Amino acid sequence: MTAPLRAGLIGLGVMGRNHARVLSGLDGVDLVGIVDPAGRPEGAPHGVPMMASLQKLLDAGIDYAVVACPTALHEEIGLALAEGGAGALIEKPLAESVEAAERLVAAFESRGLVAGVGHIERYNPALQSMRARLEAGELGEVFQVVTRRQGPFPHRIADVGVVKDLATHDIDLTGWVTGQDYVSISAHTVARSGRPHEDMVAAVGRLADGSMANHLVNWLSPFKERTTVVTGERGCFIADTLTADLTFYANGEVSTEWEALRAFRGVSEGDMIRYAIPKREPLLVEHERFRDAVLAGPGGAVPGDVVTLRQGLRTVEVSAAVLKSARLGETVTLQPAEVLSDV
Fold first, then answer.
1. How far apart are CA 18 and CA 1, in angstroms?
2. Where do the structural domains in the chain lie, given as residue ranges?
3. 40, 10 contact by CB (below 8 A)
């Protein structure tokens, strides 16, 4: 019988406590220690020791660690894990800058270590089902992806703005569900809450196949919304990732005797289907996939099961282009990504 993998956790904030909950009950994994840079012991599962430093955690002998601390610390901690020979599942975004993300990619790849990025929306049941249906050609040609992600300001976030914290979800999921890379982006940001970072962004992107992406993201709405709409030649899919519901609205095929309407070559309202899909917790699925990737070793994971560091780097590159476009007031062209085969 294979011995359980030994895992560690860095960070016991809101997301870190969720990781601790899942890790402590994950089959085939032992959570052997937790390090919290802020020194918070609350939230640690019963019996899991808090360790004074990352080095103590490495000395305990871990196969991998989950990095759930503030984004500004991702590079430092990730590089230390790579140096110590441990794999890592790093919360999104991968790093606070493109350069830092590149250093993390190089550190883990050069050592042949399994590493991934926690873009949890890829494991949302609604988006998983949408992607499978798009791959099967159910929508035909894709014309546009529209995402809306808004809600009240999260006081736990202090080191980044809404682009890096929230819009990175939409950037990653858009490339993933369509299989297309961003080639340009135009964006506008505002800061209305008195913080040094932006709290609202509206962005329009163009994907490699000519389709359009629109992202509206903010921390200024009193209600929470997480919606992805993909429109194509046969209708549109609407995924609500708060409820994990997926709905299909078909283009109608209704003949008319009204000459004025017959001349209008648009679309009409057709059937609506709400799919019944299994709804497992996305965070648990993410951990299961990463555990299996660590067991399989470098090159052994099934493509798409884990968000690779290079895919995480691409999301950081696109988010940097969003901020650059907003700062300069112009459209920013993106160079092709090095690796998109697993997107």
1. 29
2. 5-120+282-306, 122-279+318-333
3. no
CB atoms within 10 A of CB 270: 15
Could you please report the per-residue DSSP string of 50-90?
B-SSHHHHHHT--SEEEE-S-GGGHHHHHHHHHHTT-EEEE
The amino acid that residue 243 corresponds to is: T
- Predicted local confidence at residue 342, as pLDDT: 40
Q: Treating both helix axes as pointing N-terminal to C-terminal, what angle do 168-178 and 309-328 enclose, rounded to 10 degrees?
A: 120
Torsion of CA 338, 126, 157, 95, to 10 degrees: -10
Q: Which of 252, 248, 306, 302 minimizes the C-alpha distance to 277? A: 248
The Cα angle at residue 53 between residues 50 and 55, in degrees rounded to 5: 120
What digits encode the pLDDT tens for the residues 84-123?
A: 999 999 999 999 999 999 999 999 999 999 999 999 999 9
Calculate helix-pair angle for 309-328, 98-110, nearest 10 degrees: 170
Q: Which CA distances in Å does 99 have to 41, 59, 90, 102, 228?
A: 32, 29, 16, 5, 30
Phi, psi of 306 (to 5 degrees): -125, 140
Domain 5-120+282-306, CATH: 3.40.50.720
> pLDDT tens digit string along 211-234?
999 999 999 999 999 999 999 999
SS (H, E, C) 137-167: CCCCCEEEEEEEEECCCCCCCCCCCHHHHHH
From 3.20.20.70, 3.30.360.10, 3.40.50.10540, 3.40.1190.20, which CATH number describes the 122-279+318-333 domain?
Answer: 3.30.360.10
Tokens of 197: 């970072």
Q: Report residue 339's pLDDT band, with 50, 70 and 90 as the boundaries.
A: very low
Ordered alpha helix ranges (H), the chain: 14-24, 54-59, 74-83, 98-110, 125-135, 162, 168-178, 259-262, 282-296, 309-328
Pairing of strands 64-67, 87-91: parallel
Structural contact between residues 143 and 233, judged by C-beta atoms closer than 8 angstroms: yes
pLDDT band at 271 (very low <50, low <70, confident <90, very high): confident
Q: Which residue(s) pair with 213 in the sheet?
A: 145, 205
